[in-house]
Specification:
Elements lengths: L18 H6 L9 H6 L11 E13 L1 E4 L2 E2 L7 E14 L4 E20 L3 E12 L2 E13 L3 E13 L5 H17 L17 H4 L7 E12 L2 E11 L7 E2 L3 E14 L3 E14 L3 E2 L2 E2 L5 E14 L3 E15 L2 E4 L2 E10 L1
Antiparallel strand pairs: 1-4, 1-19, 2-3, 2-18, 4-5, 5-6, 5-7, 7-8, 8-9, 9-10, 10-12, 11-14, 12-13, 13-16, 14-15, 16-17, 17-19
Length: 346
């Protein structure tokens, strides 16, 4: 979500100074989360001037490593999941301090896994699918905005909701399998909330939507000194029970890091940042019971390159490696992800 300010090598006019702090409030933030996708839609230099803002971003994540209780589990024909999410974001800034944005995610995923049909029959499945995910509406309030010739500091508060627009058919399949399994083994049988698990990719991993209305809360902060900056963001997602009596776990995302401008003049800029992201979530629940095969923590690290041209266009590309990933129970964890984004302001 990196939006760069235009810093000039020669003494500039003072008309652009208020833009600097806002520009860097979006820098060096993980591109994968909903708030990140929405707020990279600021204009090419990051300012939140009144008017419409649009962006299209793409995130590809490869989940190629199976783990059992945080340890890699190697077997023939392991489960695999590749997921690509295209975020289409439109928004309106009422002023430099207040704005709203709407994010429509389009998800494409390919997978190979084994479904325990009816809870007892291992059924290999392989394929791909495309559909929309859950819509996100987010508001922004800038609570701090300070800038001068050689430094700047900004803080933005973000809040919004997930609206259940994504397909939940896979959660329905999961409920059918669990209901059939429990009807056979009886209510007193000790088993996981998700029933028998034989691989790292599960039906709930493939669900395009949650069927629930969830809350999102976030804060971004940035600091700049001359050509260098540091930016950070925190986001918390509070989940509720959705389709098929399934409740995805709450999630915490922290990200940020240092950066600097490699090239700049009156028309454009090129900046490079090193982004670190920490993402963790607890155990999902089915009918109020937690599953031991859900919940994981991942650390990502990678460079983020941002190019801006004049006052209406920016482009970004970022590669992130999963330095450490630990999941509970039997799960696939991410190996890497690639992000790219284009933004326009009108």
């Amino acid at each position: 979500m990196m939006q760069s300010a235009q810093l000039l090598a020669t003494p500039p006019s003072f008309t652009w100074l208020p833009k600097i702090a806002a520009a860097l409030s979006l820098a060096t933030v993980s591109l994968g989360c909903d708030l990140c996708a929405i707020y990279r839609a600021a204009d090419a230099r990051g300012e939140f001037t009144p008017g419409s803002v649009w962006s299209v971003s793409e995130q590809f994540t490869h989940f190629g490593t199976e783990q059992f209780n945080g340890v890699e589990f190697i077997r023939p024909n392991p489960d695999l999941l590749d997921r690509s999410i295209t975020h289409i974001v439109g928004g309106w800034n009422f002023s430099e301090r207040f704005g709203v944005s709407l994010n429509l995610p389009v998800v494409h995923q390919s997978y190979r896994f084994t479904r325990m049909t009816g809870g007892f029959t291992p059924t290999p499945r392989e394929g791909s699918e495309t559909g929309i995910g859950d819509l996100t509406l987010v508001g922004r309030w800038r609570v701090v905005g300070v800038s001068s010739m050689d430094h700047g500091f900004t803080v933005n508060l973000l809040g919004g909701i997930h609206v259940p627009t994504g397909d939940t058919a896979h959660l329905g399949e999961l409920r059918e399998d669990i209901d059939h399994y429990e009807s056979v083994v009886g209510p007193g049988h000790a088993h996981d909330a998700l029933g028998p698990v034989v691989g790292g990719v599960h039906l709930h991993d493939l669900s395009l939507g949650s069927g629930a209305v969830d809350g999102l809360f976030g804060i971004t902060a940035s600091a700049r000194w001359n050509r260098y900056f540091w930016n950070t963001q925190a986001q918390y997602v509070a989940r509720t029970e959705g389709a098929g009596h399934y409740r995805f776990a709450d999630e915490l995302i922290l990200s940020g890091g240092p950066g600097g401008f490699l090239w700049l003049n009156n028309k454009g800029t090129l900046s490079l940042a090193l982004n670190t992201a920490y993402e963790t979530r607890g155990s999902d629940e089915f009918r109020g019971r937690p599953s031991i095969h859900t919940g994981q923590t991942v650390w990502f690290l990678g460079p983020l390159l941002t190019f801006t041209w004049k006052s209406h266009f920016s482009a970004q590309v970022e590669g992130e490696a999963a330095l450490r990933a630990a999941g509970r129970g039997f799960q696939n964890v991410p190996d890497y992800r690639i992000n790219a984004a284009l933004s326009w302001r009108f």
